[in-house]
Amino acid sequence: MENIQSIKQRFEIIGQDPKLNRAIEKAIQVAPTDISVLVTGESGVGKESIPKIIHSLSHRKHAKYIAVNCGAIPEGTIDSELFGHEKGAFTGATQTRSGYFEVADGGTIFLDEVGELPLTTQVRLLRVLENGEFLKVGSSQVQKTDVRIVAATNVNMFDAIKKEKFREDLYYRLSTVEINIPPLRERKDDIHLLFRKFASDFGQKYKMPTIRLEDDAIELLLKFRWPGNIRQLRNIAEQISVLEEKRSISAATLNSYLPHYVGSNLPAVVSSTSSKSDFSNEREILYKVLFDMKGDLNDLKKLTMELLKNNDSQKVQKENENLIRKIYGEDDDIEQQDASLEVLQLPEPPLERTFKPTVQEDKYHFAEEIQEEETLSLQEKEIELIKKSLERNKGKRKAAASELGISERTLYRKIKQYDL
Q1: N-terminal to C-terminal alpha carbon distance within the chain
Q2: How far apart are CA 92 and CA 113, in angstroms?
Q3: pLDDT, tens digit, for every residue of 17-27?
Q4: Separation CA 60–CA 73 (nearest Å)
Q5: What's the whole-number mean pLDDT along residues 259-283?
Q6: Quick one: pLDDT at residue 301?
Q7: Among candidates 224, 229, 212, which has minimal Cα distance to 255?
Q8: Which end of the chain has less Cβ packing within 10 Å, N or C?
Q9: What is the pLDDT at residue 376?
Q10: Cα–Cα distance between 261 and 28 in angstroms, integer?
Q11: pLDDT at 300 (0 to 100)
Q12: Measured between alpha carbons, how far is 365 from 177 in angstroms, rounded to an integer?
């Protein structure tokens, strides 16, 4: 069995990080077997080196090694690419074609970005892993293949399984042994070493003196997070090698080549995923605000009426504590509530002889007319909003009630009230 250092030299792997060494060690150990291997890690960390190591150290090293990027093949043709097709199986199939699993019989197939496979293809792949059988597209004849599968992905497989984008049984078949490649930001000691290697390679390639980083530039290099990992580091080394006339690179020069992600250090204020309670347009959001305001106004009317009847703010506060908290918020202290109640509290009612019945009757009549007009307008909007919510949720009252911010029982009462 070859040691880790000789494997690094053979496959041009640079770095002394313990996690990287452990990944290479696991690849060396599983290579002589036919165990399926899943290589995980972020994009750009160099996952493609692991299947090459496994194939070269296995008993299949003299057979074919085929690397397939599953994310680059259209969904409609991926079954044909992997398993082949018969003549006339679909439009454009003018002749029988052998797929990768047939061509690589006795060898190794590397399925990169395996998390992008369609669910129908995952079922076919599961059958190959279980008993080595597959069917060509458009054929009913079962064929056998002896292929070692090494897969790689940069997605979180458990999240994909939870979202039903990847089969759980296929994941456990592929990940008999899982090898994780650490991201570049966790390999601080290897970053400058890799940059120097890339700078030397590009100096020879473009016949230029090799660039060299100054101390402040090295410090900046190590502080950067490198979301694109080794691929991003290599690209920046190439850019600087070609574009800079001075071969000594300062931190300011290096910083001009590093991407600056706007708002990357700020907390997200808007969720990237939509929820069932999201409204489709601003008009409906405005209606929702109006209904909330209407509810608050009714609560205030109720509180004001209590003050008129009792004329005792302390008693009203005690008896209507939940209502006050609902209006003014849970975090408001008692003093703020007292102050608000003082504003709402009306003066002592005047003597009966000071009232003018005719004027009072007209004034109340006017107020009743205004309230009726407001209630009618809002009622129409409320009916419209309830109808739209029920349509969006296909008549499911519970989901519609959640979207409207009311209880299912209240929604049922409103549906009966408005005869919806």
Answers
A1: 76
A2: 27
A3: 999 999 999 99
A4: 26
A5: 52
A6: 76
A7: 224
A8: N
A9: 52
A10: 38
A11: 75
A12: 81
**Buried residues in 385-412 as b, exposed as e (16+ CB within 10 A):** bbebbbebbeeeeebbbbbbebeeeebe
Radius of gyration of the chain (CA): 35
**Which own/partner pairs from 334-341 qualify as long-range (CB within 8 Å, at least 24 positions apart)?**
338/313, 341/307, 341/313, 341/316, 341/317
pLDDT digits (tens, 9 = 90+) for 151-183: 999 999 999 999 999 999 999 999 999 999 999
Of 148, 124, 149, nearest to 137 by C-alpha is 124
Give me the residue label for tokens 């305001």: 293
The Cα–Cα gap between 41 and 20 comes to 11
Token pair of 256 as six digits: 């001009």
- Residue 384: predicted pLDDT: 81
Residues 6+ apart with CB under 8 A from 255: 220
* Tokens linked to 63: 């057979």
Q: Up-side HSE of residue 101: CA atoms within 13 Å toward CB? A: 28
For the residues 142-150, what does the mean pLDDT come to? 95
* Token pair for 178: 């899982």
